[in-house]
Amino acid sequence: MQQKVAPPSVDPLLELGVLLVRVTFRPFRVSDVDDFILWAGDEQVTRTIRWKTITSKEEALTFIKEVCIPHHFCRSICIDDRSIGFVLVIRWSGADRHKADIGYGVAAKHWGQGIATKAVKMVISEVFKDFPDLVRLQAFAVVENIASQRVLEKAGFTREGLLRKYTFLKGQLKDLVIYSLLSTDSNGAVDDMV
Amino acid sequence: MSSHMSVACGSSISSLKSSTKAAMIFGCPACKSTFLLTTQPHACLTTSIDFSKGLHMEADGKQGQEGSPELSLRPLDLSDIDDFMVWATDDKVSRFCTWDTYTSKEAGIDYIKNIVIPHPWFKAICLDNKAIGSIFVSANNGNDRCRGELGYALASKYWGKGIVTRAVKMVASSIFNEWPHLERLEALVDVENGGSQRVLEKVGFQREGVLRKFVILKGRCRDLVIYSLLSTDPQP
């Protein structure tokens, strides 16, 4: 009788944990351009955000130089220092200075690995430190983007409601779910491994 | 959707079906009042034109009783300044509004000249053509042009009589026709402003949620309830 030998296996949670330790974020660099195009040129990634899908290296360079780098809070999400996505925090001005919007995108091949959740959690603690008079961090997810809604929920945001026919996104009228995290909510808690 | 037809001055409506008559909203081109057509005469207050076929009526179809005041919406202008100051100087009225109580007539005149007159949609709520409050719909640009925000204020002596509810119903029945690009009329109301929340609920707005610490009002962070009425929702 042949004995079946089980292939060597790695605990998937351990694997994921190892991956997430390698996730960092930093400002964009011009040298990120080739990695940038891989996800910013992918309609799967850009479908649910305002960023226009990048179609050339020139467009990518322009976008990195004119939008990502000068922006006060635009960060590349990296694995082993290679860009696989972005996180962006846009502060409101004037009477609404106490509010900011957060947005993010991750390369499709890295979906489902907890990367966006980790990136959002890391950004939250930095943002509330950087902007001490920030009271409300908010995020909008299109109603069909369940994965992004889970990211926000795992990162500790509160779902406030569904805003019907709220805005046009790439020419289509969308319902958006609005989330918020307040400076007084439990946030910036010690980050666990996963 | 309620119908919105313009009817030529002097045209006969006696042959129209009563259901059509009830739904017809006529904008008087002279005094700019909005009213429902009936067989009663409309004496325009701005000109001496006798349209003979219309009447200032309450927007909910209740025919004005003998002696009861008529509610209408019309542009607010500088000649309304003294009436405007009645509610603009009242702390009870400004309490949940973004503006601070007015303390000078000059500031009121400035506001009417610089904000009200150029505004895309700003009306006085009038009783017998006297301004007792205001109601507006603000417009947005670009990707947000599908939504407009509703705001209103009423002199406190007229609170509790359903006036704002009627005014909001008038706006809701006409704004989607006037602005065909509008899909969503929204309103943001302080969590403590129960009166205003009830107005919107009675008109049929849908409560979507509470936006926590959404605005800073008079130095304090406030939670606001967000409501919406879509062009595709059942019209009031």
Automatic annotation (TrEMBL), chain A:
Gene3D superfamilies: 3.40.630.30. Transmembrane segments: none annotated. GO terms for molecular function: acyltransferase activity, transferring groups other than amino-acyl groups. Residues 23-175 form the N-acetyltransferase domain. It holds the Pfam family Acetyltransf_3. InterPro entries: Acyl_CoA_acyltransferase, GNAT_dom. This is N-acetyltransferase domain-containing protein. It comes from Vitis vinifera.
TrEMBL record, chain B:
Keywords: Transferase. One of its GO terms (molecular function) is acyltransferase activity, transferring groups other than amino-acyl groups. This is Putative N-acetyltransferase p20. It comes from Vitis vinifera. InterPro entries: Acyl_CoA_acyltransferase, GNAT_dom. PANTHER family: ACYL-COA N-ACYLTRANSFERASES (NAT) SUPERFAMILY PROTEIN (PTHR46067). Pfam families: Acetyltransf_3. The gene is p20_4. Residues 71-231 form the N-acetyltransferase domain.
